[in-house]
């Protein structure tokens, strides 16, 4: 029988594909073995963009169809968010190494929870640049300081870092105090839409003692952080739903803070930004030309897709108008107000010749798309990461009532119980706050529930070496390196356990649990010093590119080994705003818990709780604690680590002295 040309062509293609896959496996496995680390061979490359966008529904299908023996050894690395739950360090323990390499036919990837390796990868920027291929999602409005490398990154870093200084940290502290009071005012205000359910006690005085059940804590902390970065960084007065527009508001800026869409817009500025962040994956994967043509009548998904496009259009329109207004102000010589003024700094880099900076003799100027890209990334990084940490910290404090008492004692010692937060002095109080139990609480949340769970790097265009336990390991050129933050920050090699436990599986510790007392234990050894060559290279790579240069923790608390505590990354690419973030968070906790306590909402009415004896209250609260812990474990990475899919932990704030579940040490 004669073969048709089509069958012949198909046969040739299959032969070529088979050879390509075989050759790819052979080459990549050989490279992986040269590293000296354990090797996992996977049929699908876990960092493939196609796999990353389809794994949520493909993986359950594959694991149902295939025998378990075919995938048991490597399936964890194919699973979404394996780096966070249930216990990220367990995978490294099973492999017998803090570093392993994944080899597939079309790629390599190295995952590490070794502090020494992470420190080298973070500090040797030329040898291990940022893997910008994995940050494309953040270029939705233009390239920026997060998504660039090399000389282009240096330009972005120099321009954006100017606003991040100690003077502006003081401005941020004062605005964080004001916005936290606004958030609390909303919770206690009957006009605060969406944050309260039924359950207030009767009587005017009782109403003031307790909020309703707050089911939108994540949303509220997001608004809190957005309001702070909006005002301090961009001069925008964003309002809480129970607030009114100031009469002296600049008309040009009023549209950004309005609670109703202004003329020419279909969404408010805050809502457009929030929706863009929520639907950012949709906006990345589906072209705007397609999104705009999807009718809302296509069910709930049609409405979501259309809303994503509408949000992007509105946000772009707002920011283009803001850019135009800033250019006009600069050209007119309008005096800028105090504050970080991020947008003004970005615009001046292009439109004010007197402020242009030099880079190797060339004038640094950002394009309009880069100004927009950096404005977006500063807004994203300046509010979403901080908001999530505060959200999880409040939840953990609700789960651990005894920790709240420690926090409140330190607040009383620093500020007094009856002082007005508006009078708090930043310079006199910030070091005490960071060194207090408030600082320990924030640090413990950053350790256990970091804003991001991995920080992608890659090997340079030529092979590089890392030192690990006295051995040198060859890292193949262009291989992605994934420091797994949530694993190294729970590693017993670098972190002290408060309590060792014996289980059916053997010895265990409490490093997967939230215990701020850990930060008062003696610091562990800093490890062997680097070689002279490594010190010289690290020093060269860590040239000052602006931003805060101090440590991420108070020197009076536990001092983590370099590379073992990296919630804000490390080295030259560390987060520009990490000092600002810490200032915001300690200010918020101090304001919240100076006069209030937080409790988990329980499965009982207020009247039923009133009638309970202490043992019954302990029982009902213990159930709420377990449920809250399970919910936090379900956090997912969508740009940052957060609760998604409507998951939430319901809480209530009560005035100090009126707590219903904090009177007995046996609660936790």
TrEMBL record:
GO terms for molecular function: heme binding; iron ion binding; monooxygenase activity; oxidoreductase activity, acting on paired donors, with incorporation or reduction of molecular oxygen. Belongs to the cytochrome P450 family. Its cofactor is heme. Heme binds at residue 575. Pathway: Antibiotic biosynthesis. Residues 499-553 are annotated as: Disordered. This is Cytochrome P450. GO terms for biological process: antibiotic biosynthetic process. Residues 532-542 have a biased composition (Basic and acidic residues). Gene3D superfamilies: Cytochrome P450. Pfam families: p450. Keywords: Antibiotic biosynthesis, Heme, Iron, Metal-binding, Monooxygenase, Oxidoreductase. CDD domains: CYP56-like (cd11070).
């Amino acid at each position: 029988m004669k073969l048709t040309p089509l069958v012949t062509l198909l046969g040739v293609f299959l032969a070529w594909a088979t050879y390509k896959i075989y050759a790819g496996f052979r080459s990549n496995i050989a490279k992986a073995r040269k590293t000296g680390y354990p090797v996992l061979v996977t049929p699908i490359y876990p960092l493939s963009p196609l796999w990353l966008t389809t794994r949520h529904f493909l993986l359950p299908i594959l694991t149902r169809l295939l025998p378990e023996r075919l995938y048991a050894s490597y399936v964890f690395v194919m699973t979404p968010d394996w780096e966070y739950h249930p216990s990220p360090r367990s995978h490294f323990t099973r492999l017998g190494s803090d570093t392993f390499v994944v080899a597939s036919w079309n790629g390599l990837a190295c995952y590490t929870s070794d502090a020494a390796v992470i420190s080298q990868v973070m500090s040797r920027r030329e040898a291990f640049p940022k893997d910008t291929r994995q940050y494309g999602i953040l270029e939705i409005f233009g390239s920026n300081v997060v998504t660039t490398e090399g000389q282009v990154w240096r330009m972005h870093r120099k321009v954006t870092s100017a606003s991040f200084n100690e003077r502006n940290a003081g401005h941020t502290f004062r605005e964080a105090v004001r916005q936290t009071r606004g958030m609390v005012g909303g919770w206690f205000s009957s006009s605060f839409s969406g944050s309260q359910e039924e359950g207030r006690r009767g009587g005017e005085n009782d109403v003031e003692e307790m909020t309703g059940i707050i089911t939108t804590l994540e949303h509220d902390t997001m608004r809190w952080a957005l309001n702070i970065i909006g005002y301090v960084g961009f001069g925008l007065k964003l309002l809480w739903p129970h607030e009114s527009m100031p009469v002296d508001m600049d008309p040009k800026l009023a549209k950004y803070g309005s609670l109703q869409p202004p003329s020419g817009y279909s969404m408010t500025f805050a809502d457009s930004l929030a929706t863009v962040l929520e639907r950012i994956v949709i906006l990345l994967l589906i072209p705007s030309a397609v999104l705009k043509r999807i009718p809302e009548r296509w069910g709930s998904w049609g409405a979501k897709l259309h809303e994503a496009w509408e949000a992007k259009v509105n946000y772009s329109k707002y920011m283009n108008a803001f850019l135009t207004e800033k250019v006009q102000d600069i050209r007119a010589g309008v005096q800028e107000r105090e504050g970080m003024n991020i947008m003004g700094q970005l615009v001046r880099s292009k439109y004010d010749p007197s402020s242009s900076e030099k880079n190797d003799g060339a004038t640094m100027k950002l394009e309009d798309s880069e100004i927009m890209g950096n404005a977006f990334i500063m807004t994203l990084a300046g509010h979403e990461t901080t908001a999530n940490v505060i959200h999880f910290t409040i939840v953990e404090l609700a789960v651990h009532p005894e920790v709240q008492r420690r926090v409140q004692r330190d607040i009383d010692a620093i500020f007094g119980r009856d002082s007005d937060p508006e009078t708090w002095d930043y310079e006199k109080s910030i070091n005490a706050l960071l060194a207090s139990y408030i600082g320990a609480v924030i640090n413990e949340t950053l350790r256990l529930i970091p804003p991001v769970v991995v920080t992608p790097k890659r090997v340079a265009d030529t092979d590089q070496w890392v030192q690990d336990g006295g051995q040198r390991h060859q890292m193949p050129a262009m291989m992605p390196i994934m420091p797994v933050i949530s694993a190294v920050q729970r590693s017993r090699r670098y972190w002290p356990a408060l309590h060792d436990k014996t289980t059916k599986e053997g010895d265990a510790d409490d490093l997967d649990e939230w215990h701020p007392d850990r930060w008062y234990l003696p610091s562990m050894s800093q490890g062997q010093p680097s070689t002279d060559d490594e010190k010289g290279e690290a020093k060269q790579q860590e040239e000052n590119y602006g931003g805060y240069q101090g440590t991420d923790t108070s020197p009076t608390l536990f001092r983590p080994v370099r590379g073992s505590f990296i919630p804000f990354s490390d080295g030259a690419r560390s987060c520009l705003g990490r000092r600002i973030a810490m200032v915001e968070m300690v200010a918020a906790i101090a304001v919240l818990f100076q006069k209030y306590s937080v409790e988990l909402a329980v499965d009982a009415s207020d009247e039923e709780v009133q009638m309970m004896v202490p043992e019954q209250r302990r029982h009902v609260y213990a159930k709420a604690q377990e449920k809250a812990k399970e919910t936090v474990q379900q956090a997912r990475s969508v740009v940052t680590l957060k609760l998604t899919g409507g998951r939430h932990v319901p809480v209530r704030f009560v005035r100090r002295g009126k707590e219903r579940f904090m009177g007995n040490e046996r609660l936790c």
